[in-house]
What we know:
Two copies of one chain form a homodimer. The first copy, chain A, has 15 helices and ten strands. In chain A, the strands form two sheets. The first copy, chain A, has a five-stranded parallel beta sheet with strand order 2-1-3-4-5, sandwiched between helices. The first copy, chain A, has a five-stranded parallel beta sheet with strand order 7-6-8-9-10, with helices on both faces. Helices cover 49% and strands 14% of the residues of chain A. The N terminus of chain A is likely disordered. The first copy, chain A, is globular. The first copy, chain A, folds into two domains: 172 residues, Glucose-6-phosphate isomerase like protein, domain 1 (Rossmann fold, 3-Layer(aba) Sandwich); 134 residues, Glucose-6-phosphate isomerase like protein, domain 1 (Rossmann fold, 3-Layer(aba) Sandwich). The first copy, chain A, is an alpha/beta fold. Chains A and B meet through helix 4, strand 2, helix 11 and strand 7 of A and helix 3, strand 2, helix 10 and strand 7 of B.
Amino acid sequence: MMTTPSTSLRTASSAEATALHREIHEQPKVLAKLLSEGWPTVCEVAQRIAAFGPVWVNIVARGTSDNAARYAQYLFGVNNQLGVALAAPSLCTLYNTAPRLKEALTIGVSQSGQSPDVVSVIEAARKQGGLTLAISNDPDSPLARAAHLCIELNAGCEQSVAATKTYTTELLAFAMLSAAMTGHGEQREALLTVPNAVESTIAACSTTMGNATHYGHVRRLVVVGRGFNFATAHEIALKLKETSYVLAEPYSSADLLHGPVALIERDFPVMLVAPSGRGHDSVVELLDVAEQRGARTIAISDVPAVLERADLGLAMPKGIPEWLSPICAVVPGQLFAETLSTSKGINPDKPRGLSKVTLTR
Amino acid sequence: MMTTPSTSLRTASSAEATALHREIHEQPKVLAKLLSEGWPTVCEVAQRIAAFGPVWVNIVARGTSDNAARYAQYLFGVNNQLGVALAAPSLCTLYNTAPRLKEALTIGVSQSGQSPDVVSVIEAARKQGGLTLAISNDPDSPLARAAHLCIELNAGCEQSVAATKTYTTELLAFAMLSAAMTGHGEQREALLTVPNAVESTIAACSTTMGNATHYGHVRRLVVVGRGFNFATAHEIALKLKETSYVLAEPYSSADLLHGPVALIERDFPVMLVAPSGRGHDSVVELLDVAEQRGARTIAISDVPAVLERADLGLAMPKGIPEWLSPICAVVPGQLFAETLSTSKGINPDKPRGLSKVTLTR
Lengths: 361, 361
């Protein structure tokens, strides 16, 4: 059951709202739209994939969409027992070669569908006889036209250079596809709770986000996640870099212990993405280490004890299964990046040196 | 033809040398040893792989070894037309599931061969009927025992927590395997030039490294590489974090333009890994951007014009083919990390909070 996302619409009507602000708040609405209008297409795509029977999955993307691909690596691995490679697009574009993709499902993910390097991998895979799928906000884009199949994000025009609603709709498109491939009814039910959960997250964080301005001077930060939310750590770090010029680096809590933990010292800011689920305990171990070293901690979680321990707790609603939690868990990070950007006097819609569509070759 | 690596032996005899210093300088010798003693095993492994006929390659590793895996993604892609996934080990350990690996060659890479999460992926792949290979410095380790096949690095005991000689021997092991799989004689010839090229790099950089102490105050840095040397950017960034507590972040020059380029401002230090080859021009484009923004540039290259343009030029010898260049190009980064560490008064052999073997589960 979905209610009208009134909170977000009200906030977005503010005259001084940036495109970033507006698009963050549009997410409950566009997620609900994709869920209802996109489902028949997703089911067709799932049937075509089942008929093809891929041995493995090869995903090609850049930037924000590459973080969505990272989520899909866990999603297809855990829920569909499919191995996923995140392709190196430069194999095609720089080295003029493509690996053997005949037995693979190759998925290109791009908001604009314009990136020539992503398109070239899809073309190579299709030429070899592999199955190809585009996930894009533009069903008429070169990417969508190059692939056998297309899932349209239907998120409306995204104006801010920092992608938000196209990231969460990319995650949802993957989650819907994975659920359609398993055919499990309870997964379909769980999907329907996502728009309201995102709306609750926005509402809960809007009240605590004032405290984020204390981090306005921050120039370095690490963002820690694990499992499904490793992608969330990557995406939040990217938002911080794009909008606030913070050198934010994403880590799996496992990899952080393999070396870079040496960085964490007194007052070093550490953001922990710790929704409940199997990745939770590993991230909370890092909270222990961060506390021992006097680091400043920011936690995104639905676990009250974790939120209370952190210097800044950003709450998510309870009850979201772990495989869907990345769609909610990124939202406090988006709001945090927006707050930091504003408190630094940066226009988050026009970061220096960035354009919305990057034509990497 | 290989000469005795006299420079490195002479330098390593210094009484105050750290294990890190000694192990960096041991590299020409251990690379030469692996080349000569390891070749028969590598050829056997290549035959077993050919007989199995993998559809794709799944590599599992953490930390430094994961950077070697990133190199293998380009290497097997360009030279052997094999798609490579860098596995998410937590699929096995956290989520108790493994993707379908029956048609894959699964490779576990670990200096110590002790990491339970790497071992568990190998065990799962073997149980499914896939082919498994261990690359390790310890042929009696749990990893080596779990896999069908093993390539031993034979690099001798590595004492420094920051891995150096086991990284370059891991790269060489992959390069030897790739060359044995193609059977191209000129690739085998090219491999034989690697130990001397690494020795020349050490000698050339030792004279310029004094200028690296000017970077002693640096706390943030980005390291840029592309294609084969994307792995090099990752590994240099990891060394800087481990030994000098610098928040160094690795980028592909393509991804940097997709957002994080906003970070680069006046005096921001940017290290460019730009050996000649197909990845070169893309990295040099970033040099243009960095110069326009008044950033401080450090270049690792064999191209004199690039070395002259950079604020600090770290030279590699000419004539190394791009697919082997990462074995040389990482060395100036290792020496830079060592210099920064020493100039900051840090003991690079014992970074805070790190142990040599990390038993991630």
